[in-house]
Predict the structure.
Amino acid sequence: MPEKSIRNKNLVRNVIRGFYLLVLLFSSRALVYADILSDRLNAVGTSTNQVDLVNNVISLAIPIGVFSLIGLMVSAGYIMLTSEGNPEKIAEARSIIVNALIGFGLVGLAVAILLLINNVLQLPGVNP
């Protein structure tokens, strides 16, 4: 039992160190990107025509999809790391990974459909 406790402490310590390094690496960029996302979110609500709405939805959907994918992958990775060989936990983590990839694929497909509609209708000014 003491070895298992030491392993768990080391795992928690390494996860905290990794999270700390990620925060240090991406903290300045995250603040700037969060400001950009808030501007995009406000722009969706103030769209005056269809072209602006399509532009704003496309520019907002991709970052939200990426953030969701990263969050779900980290969550699934944590569940898998702490499963200790439990097949139910490993299956749960795999299910989260598959669902995250399917969701991100659907976001990409939705953006592709919007761009296809734009190309068919020849809407001026749509810039993804």
